[in-house]
Structures are given as structure tokens and as C-alpha cells.
Design a protein that fits this description.
Length: 700
């Protein structure tokens, strides 16, 4: 999963005072590589330390994130598919549109075009020139505040007084006077060897600009999809955005009497039901909510919605995660929720799961059937059935899908977990941190050995602290939606799954690499080290702390991470931790991990035998569990009050080539990150896709 650095080193609410030659290991005997060679797209957010030192603009980053996720369709097919006809469309006065298209500079086009389009809007709808009024609440991608040239609103009451309001936006128009700034190639009927994305900086920025607008709509609203319009002189394209990607129509002349696609688009859109326009109607706004529910949600002056999940319903307020701020992918939103019948407090997860993976609820059921400990219980789960758009990423034959497409099908899904935990970074002592790490490792062991389930996405965001009424902490391993059953083989996605900062070094190879249990265990070790250096009380200066953690900010550099592990016990010793007990356990664990990327030299057979023995041990849970359990017997350590602290970090100033994101983050990735103040030809049915374990060969 790459991270804006402003979030990797963001500060949770912790007390500020301190208390009293090398190579990868020999190939393992797994016959089928799990991940094909590809350009990985996962993200490191929110575990980056670079604090926003990126040389690319938001448009560049947005365009990169949507690479391979555009498809083409003819305008009439687009309109007929997504927006039903509505009677009474006015006659088109093409001269007014021609006049608007001829205005120069670009800013002179706005008002004439608005005037020409107003007759094609439903009464109460409005178009506003917002080209100089950025929305202060829309900084979802790199903090960029959007300001479309023209913003379109329905007759709903405005949420605030800003001229540009992504939270109310129905659609937008982005205008370019030069057709050469089109973000897409000229229309082609032959789908072979096509990349729909036009080369060149200006074209790339046009695509990225459109993505920032569409993303801001979906990030600030409960939406299943959204629409947009690109004007290029006297030409036009229509767009539709989903969690899978963006559909773009072929160019057409909106000033020509041969068609009225643009005018028809606005007439149909403004008269369509809200669900057809992309509003998720399953989030039902509530009024006059019982004070007890407000108290449980801590939402006295905040909006509250009622959301169905299976046969149950739950009250929620605003989500506590920000994974949905990314333009494509699972778009996970997690809410503290209240069961409408029992008033039990729980966590509701709303996500667009990847088709071809097991439903997370199915995975949890398998885990519980095999008595896997330290995982949450499920209160409800199921695919969202209501609404006009509950799936995306599968297209009719009339859609042109480029050969470089990385679009994946998604299905709207919800699951409710019976715990409301704390992020692992909120540990109250380093003993508690270690104990919760141990609990999560035990859950992983039980899942692999008993339930035959591999987690495959170990990160700080996937380990929770769950407290009993007396304050006793237990670690829970969560977010099993990317997991895989041990009996399954083959590829399931275009991109590697996982959080890149904590991914085993060997998995960063450009060559196909089979995952093993040892890779997840290495991820646990990387998480443990990161939490210790970042939050455990220590004497490191902010600059030195940044240097020590820099390896997590070069996640695609396999060699850097191998070296980090290879130096073994030297790594935690450099953390200058206040807790000698925490240092000892980290040193002991890393003494073993130094063997994973070691190799013998000078034909030293004895050394080779020792390395091979340690490497085999690193593929098992037992040694790690035994080592940690023994360390936790230290009563003095148990009594220490050395909880997580706010510690500054000054990362090296680095010019990143790109900032890549994961399709979505985990439930609790962002809990401990303070929020910024912010004013984003396949005809198989989804049932058929659900029964297909290996979807890498499906053309979507």
C-alpha cells in the first residue's frame, strides 16, 4: 500500500514528557508464483515520514493513480446506459454554444456557456463560475483545493456559503480552449495496442485535474459514482467515475446540430433520481435522533445516518478513516456505529471489495469456525443490494477497454465488527505494546495452521488494542479482506496486495515472488520496529529518528530493506529506547532475522548450514511466540508506565519520483493520525466473477 509524508509522522495524542555481499534466501519450495510481474500500485499511506516533500503537483499524482483505469464509450451509448430519457427537452440554440466556444481567453467562455446550458437544467438547479473560488474543504489529494471552471448544483440546501462546494457538487465542467490539451487520444475503434491516455505533460495534467474534481465529489459525499464534463474548444467529452476507474466518451462537437449530447446530458442528469446521479441512498439522514444514540456516537451536533447491513441497521456519524479519499480502489469508510435494535456500540465498515476475493465476513466465519483467537466477532455483513449502482468495473461490449487496462471489478459491501478498539500506537506501556503484538501473531498462527488462511497485509493499522472493562489489553488482528486460503493458487490482482512499508523485502523484487508465511512474520517484525522507534520513549533526536525510519520511506528499494534486516540486532540498539526490556526483545528477535537475507561466503559449509537452519525457523511462528512470551515474564517491565509518546521526527528532504497509493487502507490506519482541517470485452456477470478465484486473465 505510497504515503504523503505529512501523515506518516503525524502526531497522535500522546504525553510529551519522557518517563523515568548479500542476496535473498534460497527459493522456497512453492511451485506457483503468487504475484505476476507488474508495476505495483499500492500505497504506503499513512506510514510515511516525508512530510509532503514531493516535487509533483496533485494533477501529476492523480494522473499516475488512475493510470490504466480509463475506458472509452460512445456518447449516445453512455447516455442511454446511465441516464434515462426525460420528456420535454428544449430546442437547442446551437448558435449560443458556438458563440461561447469562440470566446478567448478561456475565462470569457464561462458565462456564455452557463447561459447557454441553463435551459437544460431542472428548475432549482444552478451553474456557477467557480474558477477563482477553491473549495477550502476539498484537499483530499495532496491537499489540493479544487476549483472547477463551472460547478453544478441541485436544488438541495447548500451545506455552507462557499461558492465551490465539493460536498454538494452534482457535476462540473472543466474548459480548455486548446483541443491539444485533451487528456485522451483521438477516438479509435480498434482496441488492439491502445493506451487511451494521451502522452505529454499538459494531457497528463488534464487527466489529473479531472480526477481531483471527481475524487473530491466522492470523498466528501456518500456516492456510488459521479459525472464530469470536459470542454475542449468546440468539442466535449463526458465522464463517469466509479471505484474501478473512469469511463470517458469519444469527443463530439457540442456546437453542431448533428448531435445534442451535452445538452441532453444536463437535461437527463438534472431530472434523474438521486441514485442514478450517483447518490448512495442507503445512507438515510436522521433527524431528532435519541440523545442516547447521540451520546454513544459522540455526535451531538453532527449529522447521523441510518445504514442497512444485511437484515440489521445501524446508526453512524462521520467516518474515522480516510481511505475513501483515494480516487479508486476499495474506498474503505469505517464508522463507530450503534445497533438500532440493541444499541450496542460497534464498528461498521463500508467498502467496495475487489471481486474475486472472499467476502471478509466469509473469512471471519472460517476463522471463528477454527477457533482462531484475538479476532473480532461479526454482528452483520453482506453485499449492498439496494441502489442503482452496487458494482463497477465490468463493461458491455460497446465499451473500448485499452490493452494496458488495470481496471478491476468491485462490489459494494459492508461488515460490522463487534469491537471498538484503539490503534496499536496508543499503547499505555511498552510491555502492553509487546503483548498486543504477541496476540496478533498468535491470531496469525491460528489462522495459518488451523483455518488455513493467510492474512497478507500486516501493518500497524491492522492491529487493534481491545480493552476489557478493567482496562486489560488484548491485541486483535483485523482487516482480512485481502487474505487468501492456503489451498488457493494463482494470481488474483494486477497489483501486489499489502502495505508497502511493512512488506517483506523479498516481495519487492521485480521478479515474480511466491509469498510464504515468513513474509507475514517479517512484516510483524517491521511493524514492531516501526512502532518502537516512532512511539516508544527514546532519546533519538528528531533528525536521527527520521534517518532511522527512512527505510520505511523508500519502500520500493528492496536492497535498503534487506540491509535494514541484515544488520540484525544493531538496528534496535540504535533506537536509544528508554526501556531496556523492549530493547532486549527487539535485539533477540533481530538476531534471528539477520539470517533471512544473509548468505555464506568462501564456501563456508558450516555457516551455510546455520543460515539455512535459521531461515527455515523464520518460516514458523513458534520461535517468535516463545521468545516474546518469555520476555513478557519480566515483572518490572510489566509495572513500567512508559506509554506511547508524541515524538517529533525530521525526515530527510527527498524528491520522490512518484507518490503511489494503495487501493484502499485498513480500518484503523488513520485513527492515530490527527485530521487536517479540510474545507476526492467482458460480459461475465458478477455472480460468475465471484466464482472465479483467478481473475488475472479477465479483461476488465
Amino acid at each position: 500500500m505510497t504515503v504523503p509524508a505529512s501523515q506518516f509522522y503525524a502526531k497522535p495524542n500522546h504525553p510529551t514528557t519522557h518517563p523515568n555481499r548479500l542476496s535473498t534466501p534460497p527459493p522456497l519450495p512453492i511451485p506457483v508464483p503468487d504475484t505476476q510481474t507488474h508495476n505495483p500500485l499500492p500505497s504506503t499511506q499513512p506510514f510515511s515520514s516525508l512530510n509532503g516533500y514531493y516535487i509533483q503537483s496533485a494533477f501529476v499524482d492523480a494522473a499516475k493513480e488512475l493510470k490504466g483505469k480509463f475506458v472509452a464509450v460512445k456518447p449516445q451509448v453512455f447516455l442511454d446506459k446511465y441516464l434515462p430519457e426525460h420528456p420535454g427537452i428544449p430546442l437547442v440554440t446551437y448558435e449560443s454554444f458556438k458563440k461561447a466556444s469562440e470566446q478567448r481567453p478561456e475565462s470569457e467562455m464561462y458565462e456564455p456557456l452557463i447561459d447557454a446550458l441553463k435551459p437544460f437544467l431542472k428548475t432549482g438547479w444552478s451553474m456557477i463560475n467557480t474558477s477563482t473560488n477553491p473549495d477550502p474543504d476539498s484537499g483530499f489529494l495532496d491537499g489540493h483545493k479544487i476549483k472547477p471552471d463551472i460547478t453544478v448544483y441541485s436544488d438541495r440546501k447548500p451545506s455552507n456559503d462557499n461558492p465551490c462546494r465539493a460536498c454538494d457538487m452534482e457535476t462540473f465542467l472543466e474548459l480548455k480552449v486548446d483541443v491539444q490539451r485533451d487528456g485522451f487520444y483521438l477516438d479509435k475503434s480498434d482496441p488492439l495496442n491502445i493506451s487511451f491516455e494521451k502522452n505529454g505533460g499538459e494531457s497528463r495534467d488534464t487527466r489529473g485535474q479531472l480526477v481531483t474534481y471527481l475524487n473530491a465529489m466522492q470523498a466528501s459525499q456518500f456516492r456510488t459514482h459521479g459525472f464530469g464534463v470536459l470542454i475542449l474548444g468546440n468539442k466535449c467529452r463526458l465522464l463517469r467515475h466509479t471505484r474501478s476507474g473512469i469511463e470517458v466518451t469519444s469527443r463530439f462537437a457540442y456546437t453542431s446540430s448533428k448531435n445534442s449530447y451535452l445538452q441532453t446530458f444536463f437535461w437527463r442528469l438534472s431530472h434523474a433520481r438521486s441514485a442514478l446521479r450517483g447518490i448512495d441512498e442507503t445512507f438515510e439522514a436522521q433527524h431528532n435522533v435519541d440523545l442516547k444514540i447521540q451520546d454513544l456516537l459522540k455526535a451531538y451536533r453532527k449529522p447521523i445516518w441510518k445504514v442497512p447491513v444485511g437484515d440489521s441497521s445501524f446508526y453512524v456519524s462521520k467516518p474515522f478513516t480516510r481511505s475513501h479519499h483515494d480516487p479508486v480502489g476499495r474506498g474503505t469508510r469505517c464508522f463507530v456505529a450503534v445497533d438500532s435494535r440493541t444499541l450496542q456500540t460497534c464498528v461498521l465498515k463500508d467498502v467496495w471489495r475487489v471481486v474475486g476475493y472472499h467476502r471478509e465476513g466469509e473469512v471471519y466465519n472460517r476463522l471463528h469456525e477454527h477457533s482462531v483467537e484475538n479476532i473480532p466477532n461479526i454482528l452483520a455483513e453482506g453485499d449492498v443490494e439496494a441502489g442503482e449502482s452496487v458494482s463497477c468495473g465490468v463493461f458491455d461490449p460497446d465499451w473500448t477497454i485499452p490493452t494496458d487496462s488495470t481496471i478491476r471489478p468491485h462490489r459494494h459491501y459492508r461488515i460490522v465488527l463487534g469491537v471498538v478498539g484503539e490503534p496499536i500506537a496508543e499503547f499505555r506501556s511498552t510491555w502492553e505494546l509487546t503483548k498486543c503484538m504477541l496476540d496478533a501473531i498468535k491470531a496469525h498462527r491460528d489462522a495459518v495452521l488451523n483455518a488455513k488462511v493467510e492474512h497478507r497485509d500486516i501493518s500497524p493499522g491492522n492491529i487493534l488494542i481491545v480493552r476489557s472493562q478493567d482496562g486489560k489489553a488484548t491485541g486483535n488482528l483485523i482487516d482480512w479482506e485481502l487474505s487468501k486460503y492456503c489451498e488457493e493458487e494463482g494470481n488474483r490482482v494486477y497489483e501486489r496486495a499489502g502495505t508497502v512499508q511493512f512488506m517483506a523485502a523479498r516481495l519487492l523484487s521485480k521478479e515474480p515472488t511466491a509469498r510464504t508465511v515468513g513474509d507475514d512474520l517479517e512484516s510483524f517484525m517491521l511493524v514492531f520496529l516501526w512502532l518502537a522507534a516512532r512511539y516508544a520513549p527514546n532519546k533519538m533526536s528528531p533528525a536521527y529518528r527520521g534517518e532511522m525510519l527512512y527505510v520505511y520511506d523508500t519502500p520500493y528499494n528492496q536492497l535498503n530493506k534487506e540491509m535494514f534486516m541484515l544488520v540484525g540486532s544493531a538496528t534496535p540498539r540504535r533506537f536509544q529506547l528508554h526501556s531496556t526490556s523492549l530493547t532486549k526483545i527487539l535485539v533477540k528477535l533481530m538476531q534471528q532475522y539477520s539470517a533471512r537475507y544473509a548468505m555464506p561466503y568462501d564456501n563456508d559449509e558450516a555457516l551455510a548450514l546455520d543460515i539455512n537452519k535459521k531461515q527455515a525457523m523464520l518460516e514458523t511462528h513458534g520461535w517468535m511466540i516463545d521468545t516474546v512470551q518469555e520476555a513478557l515474564k519480566d515483572e518490572d517491565w510489566y509495572a513500567a508506565k512508559d506509554g506511547a509518546q508524541r515524538q517529533d521526527c525530521t525526515p530527510p528532504v527527498v524528491k520522490e519520483k512518484s507518490r503511489k497509493r494503495k487501493s484502499a487502507y485498513t480500518e484503523y490506519d488513520q485513527v492515530f493520525v490527527p485530521r487536517k482541517k479540510q474545507r476526492g470485452e467482458n460480459q461475465l456477470s458478477f455472480n460468475e466473477l465471484e466464482n472465479t478465484t483467478n481473475i488475472s486473465s479477465i479483461k476488465v
